Amino acid sequence: MMQDAMIDEWYPVGLFSQLDVKGRKTALMGEPIEVALDAERRARVTCGDGRTLPVCVRYGHVWSSLGKPQKDLFAIPEADQPGRRLVDVGAIRVRCSPLRAVENFLDIAHFPFVHTDILGAEPHTEVQDYKVEIRQKEDEVWATQVKFYQPKAAKSASGGITTEYMYRVPAPTCSVLYKTCPPRPGEWDVITLFVQPLAEDLCDVWPWMALFDDVTPMTDLIHFQQTIFLQDRSILENQIPRLLPLDPGMEIPTRADLTSVAYRRWLKRHNYTYGAQLVAQ
Amino acid sequence: MRLSHGFVRGEALSCIYHGWSYARSGNCLRIPAHPGLTPPETIRVGTHAVEESDGVIWVAVGVPTAQPPRLEGVVPLRSLTAHTGVAAVEAAAGAKAGAVGLVWQAQDAQQIRLLLAPQGDEQTLIHVLLDHNSSLSQRIGASRAVERLRRAAEDLQTKGIAP
Ligand SMILES: [Fe+2]
After folding, report:
1. ipTM beyond cut 0.90
2. Which of B1, B33, B43 sits opposite A240 (nearest CB)?
3. Which residue of chain B comes nearest to A239, CA vs CA?
4. Residue intervals in chain A for CATH 3.90.380.10
5. What does each C-alpha distance from A89 to A59, A212, B52 come to in angstroms?
6. Phi and psi for B142 in degrees, rounded to 5?
């Protein structure tokens, strides 16, 4: 079997702010690892077999890899923009494929049914046409001009608005969402989904945000995101089959699912198959 | 996502994930993301014959040749899911299921009737029925006894003792 190309990618393995010298035991793609601060207060990741793994610290998280990453972690220029509040949400453990967690994040059609009265509400269920492309130069999946009516788009929103979204998939288990920013028209709030693959059917989801919101208390911002992801968890843990099918099979995609179709195609093209099912069952 | 997680509104059954709704005959009535679209005939789910009898809803796999068995003198108490196959539940109960379910004599509880429905991927839905004259404390006792049975069955599965 061909080695999965996902082995050489960067993955989040913890919040840097929560590290200490005692370390944190976790796992990456089935391997036990330990994430700790060394004597110089730098993050250090060790594999169960004793190897020291590659490390970088970015967007509040420690990132590592079991293989040899060929390039730097993807850029989020907004992370360095002055005036944004950076929110470490923390991990949510989900018994699902890491790829399914990302695909669900890219889907807006479920908002009225799963995030009722927060991110969506009947009868505003229509998904208008949007644009999807695989950007060749950056090698990323992008969905733009995504619009959806939301009763409570953010913690800072006081009423229903039509929100505009852009989605970006810069790595197989990471997605960056750009979303209309109510207090600052012309700017985008950034909400990311960083997924740590623990096993093919188990992951820790690490949401992270870079927002223009000087008002809402930090605990409320975190609680709002946790509420959303716990609603998603009840869906993700019941999906069948557990692994993400990359070949067309039983499912019937509609126009609303074009981001998911592009994501699956991009995964397959790169042989990113950890958490995927190749032959339709 | 199973439609059993969904919701019934009017005469339609809807999926909890994206709200696609289905008619009694299995054809898709509505895709909320595309309200202007009439779903093509090819979008449909399988349907099964259903019968309600003695407080239990029975679903037929294939074409049923007879009515569901009668369950006289007992009433439904609750249903619970065991993360194990039917064989492990039978092994833990020390009895096999017949046409009218499994008759289980639990320790410190009255006789309990169990209907075991295999759910695929190593799960069993256990429907619990009790004598219709049971008192509140007997019903609570039976409920706890079945939870112990579930744990015992799941332990057997983990230890690899049950098939
Ligand atoms: Fe969601």
Report:
1. yes
2. B1
3. B1
4. 84-277
5. 12, 16, 48
6. -65, -40
